[in-house]
Amino acid sequence: MAKVQLPVQKNQIIEVTFEDLTHDGNGVAKVDGYPLFIANGLPGERAKVKVTKLNKGYGFAKILEIYEKSRYRVIPECPIYEECGGCQLQHLSYEGQLIAKEKQVSDVMQRIGKIENVTIHPVLGMESPWRYRNKSQVPIGEREGGLIGGFYRQRTHDIIDMKECLIQVEENDHVLKKVKEICGKYGIKPYDEKSHKGVLRHVMARYGKISGETMIVLITKTAELPNRKKIIAELVATIPNLKSIVQNVNSKRTNVIFGNETKVLWGRETITDSIGEIQFAISARSFYQVNPEQTKVLYEKALEYAGLTGAETVIDAYCGIGTISLFLAQKAKKVYGVEIIPEAIDDARRNAQLNGVENVEFAVGEAEKIIPNWYKQGIEADVLVVDPPRKGCDQALLDTIMQMKPKKVVYVSCNPATLARDLRILEDGGYQTLEVQPVDMFPMTAHVECCSLLVRTDK
Ligand SMILES: C[S@@+](CC[C@H](N)C(=O)[O-])C[C@H]1O[C@@H](n2cnc3c(N)ncnc32)[C@H](O)[C@@H]1O
After folding, report:
1. TRAM domain spans which residues (predicted)?
2. Is the ipTM value over 0.85, yes or no?
């Protein structure tokens, strides 16, 4: 095969102008149409860069000097921003982040979805885009005899020890600090990926922003946690309003964080929190949106798009602990929710009871299997809401939606690329996308959430 002639060579130093940002926040500059991905570059900037790696269709470079800075460039607030892989956009002002995210959504709608005649609204941002995350989940390692914990350095598994995280609630910083101190003091060894030895793999802290309640989850390789009683006693004595300490055991060689065995070490199985008028019980393994303030904005948009009058049957696919289901149930005749994690459905049923909601029914299983079964049994939705994980909806679910033909589909998504892909499939199956509302659930990171409204076009 003939060798492809590329317009640049490895180690070449060139001058570029940044045109765009990638979905993960890197700058994009092109040389004769050949894209170079370059960390820290912002659209409009001119820089001297060194080419570091070349592939057939794209390459990488690093910035040596920025000649012309973007008017949206700011000095990152976090002292470990350059090393830590947790945030990607702290060098871009918040105004600039919202502009970039709107463009990201609009670009994929055109490029991947080929969606026409859709209104893409400006991103709904936060008034104060810091300290919003209610959940911290970090790997644990060791340095000079002490435990360390924090995000991985980008594209590595090196842990950057984190004293505080400016997008986390301060309560979670305190939990991580105390867990490192106390577990270190009682000789708990961190898990080592290479040797597959050690005890503590990850620590998760979850904080109810409204309730003030805290849960700590210790994810361990071994079922045994040495000095368990002493560790629990010290955590209980030092963490204010701690309601639950849970251990999850993951003994596999894997990058997946949670294992299958979960046990309560102290206190309750769940903590509670509320969004708007609705209260939620949240257990260790259940998905709960990380930015409760913006979750309210997102769910209100989903409710608005659903346009319920009280007469509708609604299906909420990928329902988690029933958050959207309970929001919708306030205005629907009946809501059916489906979710794959059994503990989340236990929480969803508990949450329905907690809020005195009787017009909801939940099922455990894969949405792509349960919803086709419901359809066979005669359960048909007027409005179908989906909120899948990043990989988007399973084809079997999309096929069922196109057979069932609900009047409206409300598609909530944390990945604009898979959203655009699925919207194309639904448009080819008789739907039209009317509106996409991006909501900034994850300031300082390159992620953006969207709520979209589709309607059936046939009569
Ligand atoms: C983005 S979360 C949304 C949860 C919920 N709607 C909320 O807002 O809190 C996606 C959920 O889908 C669940 N899930 C993943 N794959 C699934 C599948 N094949 N069928 C049903 N649920 C699934 C996950 O466990 C997670 O709770």
Report:
1. 7-65
2. yes
